[in-house]
Structure formats: C-alpha cells, structure tokens
Design goal:
Length: 187
C-alpha cells in the first residue's frame, strides 16, 4: 500500500560525483549529512503554449530539474572541504578561496510516510556557499541553522531524480544509502 501522507525529513546523505570525458557521472560512497531541518525543491522549467483555431492548440513543458534549499543544524567540515572546495591547513584553519571549484554531488534523503519512508536521490546537484548570520543570545538557547541553496540538473542521460515506491525491491530499499542507486540494466 502506498503512502497517503508525507512528513518529516531524515537520512540526508551526499555523494561526490566525478565526470568522465563524456560528462557521465560516477559517485563516491554516500556520506551522512546530519542535522536535517528542512528541504525544499522548486521545479525549474517553462510551459509553452501555441495558439491556433482560437484555442490552446498545443502545450508543452520542460524539465530543467529543481532549485532547492537545504536547512541544516550545522554544515560538516567534511562537506565544506569535499564539496564546497574549502581547504584545511595543517594548523586547523579552514579557508574559503574565491577560486575554489565546487564538486557536483548526488543528494539522497527520505521523507517519512504513514506506511513507509520514501527515499529519493537527486543525481547532479551543485551547491552554493551558505549565507552566514548570527544573533546575540539573550534568554534563549534555540540553535541557529545554516541554509544551502542548490540546483539539481539532469545528468547526460537525462535523469534528474529517482524515488522508491511501495513496490521497490527490499534489497534496493535497504541498500539505498550504501551506494547511489543505478538501475540494473538487463541485456
């Protein structure tokens, strides 16, 4: 039976992608990205309409992936180095450099449901540096969060996102965070 509702966000992971000479991506081992507060995906693409015979004669839309935000309790140092291209000196100082190259990643996560959590993977994600803010603490100890904005585009094969369903094979579902999902091709 399928979920009737969706709630909660957990098990966010990232996997650094490497492109070959054709632009095809391969992925490293997924790494947990703890502290998930919220994740928002807004569609990218346009709808185009052609009018003839005094009506909408033809309509089409494009799928240019998503724009998103990931709000997190704190951005791990490993993410800042592996993905955002910051460097860590021998004396423990992390440096943001204007020439840093941001690595593409696969972003994996799940939303709870009334039946079973639905797991997702975005395959070609480019993260932006987070904004930095802070406030003087007066009489509260509520943590402040960090927010990353990102663009999730299609791979060279045209894949933007995949998600589990109520009929997903148990081995695939249970191994979701062990490696970035790629369907098994049968000859």
């Amino acid at each position: 039976m399928s979920n009737r509702v969706r709630f909660g966000l957990k098990n966010v992971h990232y996997s650094v992608a490497t492109a070959d000479t054709t632009g095809a991506l391969t992925y490293g081992t997924p790494v947990p990205f703890p502290g998930a507060v919220s994740l928002t995906l807004d569609t990218r693409g346009d709808t185009s309409e052609f009018y003839a015979d005094d009506r909408t004669y033809y309509a089409t839309s494009t799928n240019n992936g998503y724009e998103g935000t990931y709000e997190v309790a704190e951005i791990p140092e490993s993410f800042r180095i592996e993905v955002l291209g910051e460097t860590l000196s021998d004396d423990g100082v992390i440096t943001e450099n204007s020439n840093a190259r941001v690595s593409a990643i696969a972003l994996m996560f799940e939303f709870n449901g009334d039946m079973k959590a639905t797991r997702h993977v975005l395959y070609n994600v480019t993260m932006n540096r987070p904004s930095i803010s802070g406030e003087t603490v007066t009489d509260t100890t509520e943590p402040q969060t960090s927010e990353l904005t990102f663009v999730a585009s299609a791979t060279t094969e045209g894949v933007v996102k995949r998600s589990t369903t109520a009929t997903t094979d148990e081995a695939v579902y249970n191994g979701w965070y062990g490696a970035v999902y790629a369907p098994v091709e049968t000859p």
